[in-house]
Amino acid sequence: MNVYDFDGTIFYSDCSIGFALWCMKRHPKLWFTFFPGLLKSIIQHEMGKIPNYQLQRKMFSYLTMIDDFDEQIEKYWDKYECRISEWYLAQKRPDDLIISASPDCIIGPIAKRLGVNYMATEFDREYGVFLNNLMYAKEKAKYIFDHGFPVIDNFYSDSLADTPLALCAEKAHLVTDKATNVIDWPDLDKETMGKVKKKIDTGWNVHLKEDE
């Protein structure tokens, strides 16, 4: 079994941010009902006043404000499915597992199109709350352990925050250059481990560019 992160790994950019921008363009009221609160939370997070999971909850909160979600998510993937990396499509297997911190309601439709399995952050769009832990960093490794530690042949991610899951795999790969280049996971020397800790502690690693 091969396991993949999604955003920045097999898909260029961050689908949670991308879909937010998509919805804000089609529902301009979100600039007033969603964006100011998100901006405040980003500033608070950068100042160390709120943890990552609270920032992510605020990030996902726009999903509670969209009445035509099912229609919009399909239209979004109609346009942006083409951003799935060619290197991934060339090696895709039906037993692949995508593990993503993005909401399951966004990841699920594209995983279905790809015909692969997925695990993502479970977010209740009605109440705006997480139904499980944010599927980030060590939570991904915990998911694998909780499911009987299936053998991971290869793991792919663009973020050193995923080192806990990389250590669970027979072989780990770091994806760079806007989800186009695959290299070996770096050796975990003292300097690299410092970067890993910083990535896990900050938990804010998004790709903001979207071409609407």
Explain what you see:
With 212 residues, this protein is α/β, with parallel strands linked by helices. Helices cover 43% and strands 17% of the residues. Strands 3-2-1-6-7-8 form a 6-stranded mixed sheet, covered by helices on one side. The chain has a two-stranded antiparallel sheet with strand order 4-5. Helix 3 (35-46) packs antiparallel against helix 4. Residues 204-212 have low confidence and may be disordered.
Descriptive terms for the model:
212 residues; alpha/beta; 17% strand
Output the radius of gyration. Answer: 17 Å
**Low-confidence runs of at least 5 consecutive residues:** 204-212
Give the termini separation.
Answer: 35 Å
Describe the biggest sheet?
6 strands, mixed
The total count of helices amounts to: 10
Spatial order of strands in the largest sheet = 3-2-1-6-7-8
Which class do the helix and strand fractions yield?
Answer: alpha/beta
Morphology call = globular
Mean pLDDT comes to 88
Name the beta content range.
15-25%
Percent range of helical residues:
40-55%
Topology, number of strands: 8
Pattern of helices and strands: EHHHHHHEHEEEHEHEEH
Oligomer: single chain
What's the structural blueprint in terms of helices and strands?
Layout: E1 2-4, H1 15-26, H2 30-33, H3 35-46, H4 52-60, H5 69-80, H6 86-91, E2 97-103, H7 104-114, E3 117-121, E4 123-124, E5 129-130, H8 138-146, E6 152-157, H9 163-166, E7 169-176, E8 181-184, H10 190-202
Parallel strand pairs: 1-2, 1-6, 2-3, 6-7
Antiparallel strand pairs: 4-5, 7-8
Helix pairs in contact: 3-4
